Amino acid sequence: MFMVTTIKDTVKILPRYFYKNRNEAIIDEINHKYSNKVLHNVGLCIELLDLIEVSDGIVLPCKDGSYTVKVTFKMIVFRPFIGETLIGKVSNSSEKGIKVSMGFFDDITIPASQLTPDTTFDKTQNVWIWNFNETDKLYIDKNEEIRFQVLTELFVDTGPMSKKKPFGQDPQESTKQLNESAESELVVPYSIIGTITQQGLGLTSWWE
Amino acid sequence: NNIIVLDYELYSFLQSKDIKKKGKFNKFQQGLSTIEYEVNKYLSNMPSSTQTPEQIDNVINALKPYALTMTEVFQLINLRPKALIDLTLIIEECESRFTEENLEDLLTIIKEQLPRDDDDEEDEEEDGEDGEDGEEEEEEEEEEEEEEEENNEEQEYDEMDMLVDESSYKKDAEDDIDGEAGDDD
């Protein structure tokens, strides 16, 4: 579920960090920028693994005196492949399906259509129930360990809006646009859609 | 240009780092601390937490006769299946590629090479049934699949070279700049 990818970037180290060893400062900067952040079409960055190449540094005296370097490095990324079997915990249930969390990554959804065949939603208890046979009913409870397969992944570019505003736009217009986008559903940069339709998937307690 | 990493490799990497930076809470690195903590917590509950490099080398060698794809081998090691049904999730077209006996042997290999504490309860039931049969089966398969193996081996197992660089995780990152370039290619 984890992989290592090579990234090139320019790193700027402020003078206040010059007390650090150069490589240590570079690693700290990179981790500060990338750790626990999603890179579009790459995955959730965990941590820097190793530096590969560090160019000669440049200090720009006319700006803030930062030491600028071009760095090539290896980054550990979380990105399961399609079809991979993963284990997580049920975090939330609703009519639409269930949400699963792995602790470090929460945006995993198993929609209602991808649940074990023959499951029904109980509105009073807010829980999905697998009608295993006539007498046995198995509950998909919160915080239960669940095994699922990755069906698809979805990357959404949540960068700053790139629409060019016409010169001299009314300031009230632009704040209105910002407010509208904030009210609409929170967009998640990287999410996984899972499935538990296949035999062997679902709560791990079912198959023990 | 992406190398897939075993859970175990990431776990040991995080363990080695924690030892170095113990007690140094850094507000500047909140993202890093959070994710290191969470990933470590997650992996410590998975089979990867008790694996060692030797076990992994051994299990990879033991699995070679099965000519599994790299993703299948990785999942077998990460998930450490205990039952036949778990294998159907990991191995594609399981039933057409292997017989039930082959699969039972595969489970035995995994159990032996990657032992876990909870195996003791199950061991009492299985007593030497597959012992002799298991060895014969493996020899037959080796002959049949030798040709395939030769072609696939280089592609599939190149990434395993990462394990050789185990020691580099434990050195300070500073020392590695010169040595690391091109090591993993």
SSE layout:
The complex is a heterodimer of chains A (208) and B (185).
Chain A: E1 2-13, H1 22-34, E2 38-39, E3 43-54, E4 58-59, E5 67-78, E6 85-94, E7 97-101, E8 108-111, E9 119-122, E10 127-130, E11 138-140, E12 145-155, H2 171-183, E13 190-195, E14 202-203
Parallel strand pairs in A: 8-13
Antiparallel strand pairs in A: 1-5, 2-3, 3-5, 4-5, 6-7, 6-12, 7-8, 9-10, 10-11, 12-13, 12-14
Chain B: E1 2-5, H1 7-20, H2 30-44, H3 53-63, H4 70-79, H5 84-90, H6 94-97, H7 100-113, H8 119-123, H9 131-157, H10 166-170, H11 177-180
Helix pairs in contact in B: 1-2, 3-7
Mind explaining what this structure looks like?
The complex is a heterodimer of chains A (208) and B (185). By secondary structure, chain A is mainly beta. Chain A folds into two domains: 2-78, RNA polymerase Rpb7-like, N-terminal domain (Dna Ligase, domain 1); 85-207, Beta Barrel (OB fold (Dihydrolipoamide Acetyltransferase, E2P)). Helix content of chain A is 12%, strand content 43%. In chain A, strands 1, 2, 3, 4 and 5 form a five-stranded antiparallel sheet that branches. In chain A, a hairpin with a 4-residue loop joins strand 9 and strand 10. The model of chain A has no long low-confidence stretch (mean pLDDT 86). Chain B is an all-alpha fold and 185 residues long. Among the domains of chain B are: 7-45; 53-113, Growth Hormone, Chain: A (Up-down Bundle). Chain B has eleven helices and one strand; from the N terminus they run E-H-H-H-H-H-H-H-H-H-H-H. Chain B has helices spanning 7-20, 30-44, 53-63, 70-79, 84-90, 94-97, 100-113, 119-123, 131-157, 166-170, 177-180, and one strand spanning 2-5. In chain B, helix 1 (7-20) packs across helix 2 and helix 3 (53-63) packs antiparallel against helix 7. Chain A: Its main location: nucleus. Chain A: It holds the Pfam family RNA_pol_Rbc25. Chain A: InterPro entries: NA-bd_OB-fold, RNA_pol_III_Rbc25, RNA_pol_Rpb7-like_N_sf, Rpb7-like, Rpb7-like_N. Chain A: Residues 8-61 form the RNA polymerase Rpb7-like N-terminal domain. Chain A: Residues 84-207 form the RNA polymerase III subunit Rpc25 domain.
